[in-house]
Structures are given as structure tokens and as C-alpha cells.
Amino acid sequence: MKVAVGRLRTLLAASRRGDADTELRWALPDAARRMLHIFLAGGLFAAFLAAMQGGQVLHEGHLPIHLFIVQDLPWFILAALVAAALMSRAISARLQAGADAAVGQVFRSAGWSVAVLAGFVFAVAAIGTFVVYHQYPLAMDEFMADFQTKILQRGAILAPVDEAWRGLITALQPNFTYQSADGSVWGALYLPVASAFRALLSPVGLESVTSAVLTAASVVLAAAVAGQLWPGRGDVRVIAAAGVALSAQALITAMTPYAMPGHLFLNLAWLYLFFRDDRLGHAFAPWIGIAAVGLHQMHAHALFVMPFMLSLLFERRWRLAAYYAVLYGVGHFAWLHWYDIAELITHGPQAATQAVGEGGLFLDRLQEIVQMPGAGAIIMMAVNLLRFLAWQDVAICILVALAIGNWRQCPSRVRLLAWSIAFSVIPYLLIMPSQGHGWGYRYLHGLIGNFGLIAACGWTLAVASLPDRARALQPATLVAVSFAITLAVALPLRAWQAERFVGPYATASEHIAAIDADIVVIDHAGTLFGVDLVRNEPFLNNRPLVLSLWDLEPEQLGPLCRDHSVAVVNRDDLAALGLSDSRKRVATNDEQAALSDALARCAVAQSSAIPIVPVQAP
To answer: What pLDDT sits at residue 606?
Structure first.
């Protein structure tokens, strides 16, 4: 243990120390060759999983593996071809000269180049929000962010629930919903800062493109942090900015209401303040961190910041470490009791503050999902990490490989950035190995800035090695060709893949919203993420209201059918709209039979008073 602690202390040493005076071990072609091997391994792994999956019906828990096969296998093949071509000496001198000239011009106008990259990100993400993503919050994480935003826009923290609907809260919103002990108020079972970003931008009409705004700002922040690490180097600022701007994961996620673009933005803002290493920077950094803790889930920022906090201890900067510890401790305590605070604000001191619903409070949920990693968790984590690489630019991956291969040549601050990624990955073996929905690996989304900054370090090493190592693969050629392929091939491919997945769910939701009834009951059993179609406004002012059949009791259907017009959307309707089965059909059990009988009585009682909107395939 002492040896391990000593080793960690050495690796997380003072951030102001200079680079190690050692010779560059890997040249750029070596890094490209190693990434070629990783791309080939990723493709073979995806092909192996495809063969193992065979014709089995997809289960929701295996969605990342399914997407890894159908979305990433083609890209791994293309990325391997790109890496192999870049390694080849067949690249003509004319191509290299052209790449050198083009990249050189971009670097000489670094400020403008970063601005163009940020504008590109905003434009692509804003357009994609409507064209690719259909302005549709696909996953429940996305929907609940929008759900909480609408509550905040009304000047409230929790939304009141009419007494008539309190017994149906779970059927109205089966997942990720917080409700008070008496059922009088409800809200999202997530912390509210991501929704607050959306609410703050809504008065100027930017609510729908909040993620695009935050991601574009992250491009600028990545360049600013690179400028701190390598002062006066415009080329490094452009590489770091491109690490964010040309990440397909960053761009597609910027089209969504996910909290992850907020993590990326606040993490980079925190890095900028921390790396200032002055009173002003350290005064504000923990406050940015506290906001990041309250974005969505508490642990994400805590894992990101851990190596930097350890570095303060190893440097013996006790007072500064204590300042961070106190503020972070108070901030975490406050967010841990966010629902108590929310009810106190809503109801006053007499409020009863006991969480019910999906998993309860943060610690209850954490206790439920922590598990020892088995073979399945390890396979899933391998898939996650390979998906993260598959959604980044090839040149950025190669430059990161170059930096990691020359670990001791990297500035210690860059090594802290790498440790931040490692600290963020390891716990997911114990909690939530499967991310469910996500483009790339969304649990590392807040670390894309770190990834780009490590790539910037790789760029500096590649350029520094040129006088002594004349190779066929030049840094400018690598960057120019890879960036061009990302723009021309990778981003359109990823946008098409995202739209193909999101489109049927957006169409199904539109179909449900068009049904002329007070209530629509969805039989979503056996439909891939069919339960996510059950979504209502927080103030229950939408018509029709949508309920989950499998969260109703048979005795509840009678009063609903007596007092309201009711329509039913079943699994066959959803299949006709393009939604896939999540597993093989199971035999009808007693519960299913009871609910089906109740629905039949409901139809008779209403005497077919309401027409069911016919389902048409899109």
C-alpha cells in the first residue's frame, strides 16, 4: 500500500514542475500504428459481439452493445483505413506541402480559427436540434431536464399535483420522478442546474439550443486552457479547440437536452480558473465546481476534480486545500439535501421531507446500483471506452496516444488531466456499467475537453520531434486529412445514425399527442424503451394525458374510463410506428389478463364513443 501511495503521489506531483528531460519514445507514426491496432481490435470486437448476439431480440440493457455493433463497426473499419493511409509513405509530397500550408495558415490566425470552430459547432448543433433530433428529448434523462425546466420557468422548484391525480403519479411518469411524501408536489429526480441553464436562456429564445451554446463556449474555453498550458502557442490552442469541435460525440450531444454539455462547459471553466493558480482563480473555481455538482448527478464532477485536489495535498498547500474542502463539503451537503430544500421552499418549515418514487434520494440510489464488477460489466466498459474513441476525430486519438506513450514528457498538468479521465472511468465498473442511451460514451462527455488538451500535448511533442525525426507522416498532414474526413464523412454519418434512431420515437410521440381523447394508456411491454413514451407536462396541462398500462392497478381503470375518454396504444401500434421489440414476447400472466379484461370493460362502457387514431407507418 505504501508503495502504491508513493507512486500515486509521484504521478500527481506539483503542477508547476517542468517536463521530464527524457527522449521522445514514440514518434507520430508509432502512435498512429498503435491507434490502428486499437481501431482494428474495436472492429473485431464489434464483429465478435455481433456473431454472439446472432438473431436474439434486443434487450434495453444491451443497447450500448447493439449501438456499438450497428453504429461503430463501420466507423472502426473506416478509421483503420484512415490511420493506415496516414502511416503510408505513399502520401505524396504535394499533399504534405498543401497540408502544411493550409494548417499553417489556420495556426497563424489562431484567434479567428477558434472563433470559426465555435461558430461551426453552434450552427451545426442548432440546426441538428431540429433536423436530426427533431427537437425531441429521446431519453428520460433528456425529458426530465426539459420537465424541470418548465417548472423553473413558472418560478417554482416543484410542481403541484392535483389531488385527483396523486394516486396515478407513477403511471403518469414511471421513471426518474421525485414526489413529496403526500404526493402534493413532484419534479425531476435529478439535480436542477442543467435545467436552470435552459430556463436562463429561454427569455432570449435559446432554450432549445442550450446545449449548442454550452458546447460552442466549451470550444473557446478549451483553447483558453491550452493557452495557459502553452503560452504563445496558437497552434496548440487550435488543436485543443478542434478536440471539442470535431468530436462527433460533442456535436450530436449538443443537439440534445442532456446535462452532459453542461458538464463539459463547467469542467473547462473550472480548469481555466484552477490553472490560473492565483487568488482570483482559486476564489471562484470551487463555486463553479459546486454548480457542476448540481448539474445532474453529484458524483460526475467529484470524480473529475479528485486528482487536482490530491495534487494540492501532495504539494502541501494546506490552506488552499482546506478552502476547497470546506466549500465542496458544504456544496455536496446542500445538493445531497436538495429535495428537502426544495420542499422547504415550496411548503415552508412545516413540510414533511421524505423522498418517494424512483430510487429515493441520492445515497439510496447509489446503494441500489453499486455492485461488484463481473464479466458482463467488464465487457460493457470495454464497449463504452471503444465507443468513446469511435466518436472522436482520428487525428485527436492519435495525438492522445502519442502523449500517453510519452507520459514523462508531458507537463504534469497534462498528466493530471489524464488522471482525471482515469478517476472518472473506474467507478463506473461498480455503478451503471451500461449507459443506456448515449452517443459515444456520455459518462465521459465532461472529459472531452481533457481529451483535446492531452491531444494538444501530443501535438507539441510531434512538432518538437520533427528536426530529429524526419518521417513520412507529418503532423500537418495528419491533422488536415483527418479533420477533412471528420467533416466530410464522420459527422454526416453520425448525424444520419442519430436521426435513424430518434426519428421513430419522435413520430410515435407525435402520434400519441394527436389522439382525440382525455387519456391515452400505453401498453409498452416488449417495446424497446416504450415506457419512455409515457411523458406528461409537469403541471398536467397536456391533452391527452399519457399513462403507462403496467403502472396501473386494474381497479384504477374503472374510474378513469367512467370519468374520461380513454384510448389505448398497444405494442402492435408501436411496432407499426417503427419501434423495435426489446425481448421475445412472453405468455400472458394473471396481471396482464386482469388489465386486459379491465380495458375491455372500459371499451364497452364508453360504447366506442371515441375513435382510435389509426396507426400508419411513417
So the answer is: 59
